[in-house]
Write a structure and sequence with these properties.
This is WD40 repeat domain-containing protein. The chain has 354 residues and is mostly beta strands. It has no helices and 32 strands. 36% of the residues are buried.
């Protein structure tokens, strides 16, 4: 049975040595975009009929050569992929649901739940494979972790906050939390990036703030082009990343993927995004490329692009055909338990150096 399917909507993404790995929202698969290739490999899972909410994953963390996928909604297991052998292992999810983000620190994976559920925290020890719920000491914080991946610096991670002009800080060494009120601003912060000296922040307005943590002050405000577009979730951008001399921002309710030169503070508008499109995912591919996923929430499909350090934009994998892959429950009836089948399906004539 052949059918043409749209590019999967991505909810979890990670980079391992230049190869990207994805989990899809609108399909039961795990996907892989190999380094140096435009062919998309589909690592197909499921050992029983597909029920979307039982296998929905929201994020993944890298530990050595393994990827740990975080359970959202009703996922029964934490899923671990060995990217060298392509074998999957499963750890029973005993800590509840609605975990949105994961960060690896030492031999442990910290999983962070949504603030709406009381901010659950779950810990997976990668040596023992034990799962425990953990409690943090310090100030009560509500990180806005629905979209941004946080900014990990040494033994701390900085997350935006739903409050006005505040940043949440998690310390992995002593498992404490703190909330910093930035002086002279009440803008709700929704993305956080660190360039080695200063933090770059964006919020609900058409501006980017540069923050000196040591002095606790805003040292510069970069005004972006005003746009006439409703912003129902009060956020312009979902994430930001540093690449070379630039800070890149992926839009939610803004009309362009942009980058800002860290020296000149000049904004460049790289790639237009439609009114019905949002960019949930942004991931580095080595040091000179960034992957961005673009979802059309009205047409229920996605496209993507790769941005090079020189500003070159390359669109990729907008639509493709796969045999027996999406939304076909009978595909999974005869699979062995806990095995995912690697399907290298796309034609070799797509193979090119990125």
């Amino acid at each position: 049975m052949n059918r043409k399917e749209k590019y999967p909507q991505i909810v979890a993404i990670s980079n391992v040595d230049g190869t990207l790995y994805f989990k899809g929202y609108n399909s039961p698969g795990t996907f892989m975009l190999k380094k140096g290739s435009e062919s998309l490999c589909v690592i197909q899972e499921m050992n029983k009929p597909y029920i979307w909410h039982q296998y929905m994953y929201s994020d993944c963390a890298r530990y050595k050569n393994m990827l740990v996928f975080v359970p959202y909604v009703d996922a029964e297991f934490i899923t671990i992929l060995d990217t060298q052998s392509f074998k999957f292992s499963y750890v029973k999810n005993t800590g509840g649901y609605r975990y949105k983000k994961a960060i690896a620190y030492n031999d442990q994976i910290y999983m962070f739940g949504e603030h709406l559920d009381g901010g659950r925290r779950m810990l997976l020890d990668m040596e023992s494979m034990n799962v425990t719920s953990i409690t943090w000491k310090g100030k009560k914080v509500e990180p806005a972790i629905t979209f941004d991946n946080g900014c990990k610096i040494n033994h701390k991670v900085y997350w935006p906050n739903f409050g006005n002009g505040t940043i949440c800080v998690f310390d992995f060494e002593n498992r404490t939390t703190d909330k910093i009120k930035i002086k002279n601003t009440d803008v709700p912060i929704l993305t956080v990036t660190f360039d080695g000296e200063y933090f770059w922040l964006s919020g609900i307005g058409d501006e980017v703030l540069i923050w000196d943590e040591m002095e606790n002050k805003i040292i510069d405000v970069i005004q972006l082009k005003k746009i006439d577009r409703e912003c129902p979730w009060d956020m312009r951008f979902s994430a930001s990343r540093i690449m070379g001399e630039y800070v890149y921002f992926s839009p939610v309710y803004y009309n362009n993927i942009i980058r800002i030169n860290r020296k000149s503070k000049k904004a460049e508008y790289l790639f237009e995004v439609g009114d019905d499109e949002v960019c949930w995912n942004m991931c580095e591919i080595e040091k000179d490329r960034i992957y961005i996923d673009i979802t059309n929430y009205k047409k229920d499909n996605s496209r993507n692009c790769i941005i090079s350090a020189d500003g070159t934009i390359r669109e990729k994998c907008t639509e493709f055909s796969i045999q027996n892959c999406y939304f076909q429950e009978n595909l999974f009836e005869n699979l062995d338990n806990n095995i995912e089948v690697l399907i290298n399906y796309l034609a070799s004539d797509h193979d090119q150096t990125i």
